[in-house]
């Protein structure tokens, strides 16, 4: 009986060991399946990333040109903003011809003071937003320079702008 009890204890220990090995094996199989799924997901992501990169290669040229243009325009920012701010602040009551002369006078004065200004800088070029201008045109705003400038002054002012629109 003693030998039998001893052999039964050994069998029980072996069965526990087998159960533990089976549990470990199942865990490893589940981990292998999870890793295979991760490999598939990474492969799909890699394919998408390659497509995206190849699609954006053409944008590299455009972005490089845009960065070069913006870098060159950075030196003119102060003068351009000065002219645009002056037009928003002071040009509202005047007719188109006087506004054009005022912009030219301010550009000349900036050059005298050695403030860099973009050639032909106007308020509409500095503050104009193509999307808004199209929206205004669709809403019925005439596309002449005076009307566009008036719209920019109206929406660029924090308070009530003084304007005379014939």
Q: How would you sum up this structure, described in words?
A:
This protein is mainly α and 166 residues long. The chain has a domain at 74-156. Helix content is 78%, strand content 0%. The chain has helices spanning 2-73, 77-90, 96-112, 123-127, 130-139, 145-156. The mean pLDDT is 89.
Which descriptors would you attach to this protein?
single chain; 166 residues; mainly alpha; 78% helix; 0% strand
Short description:
This protein is mostly helical and 166 residues long. Helices cover 78% and strands 0% of the residues.
The count of helical stretches stands at: 6
Cα-atom radius of gyration: 37 Å
**Shape verdict:** rod-shaped
Oligomer type: single chain
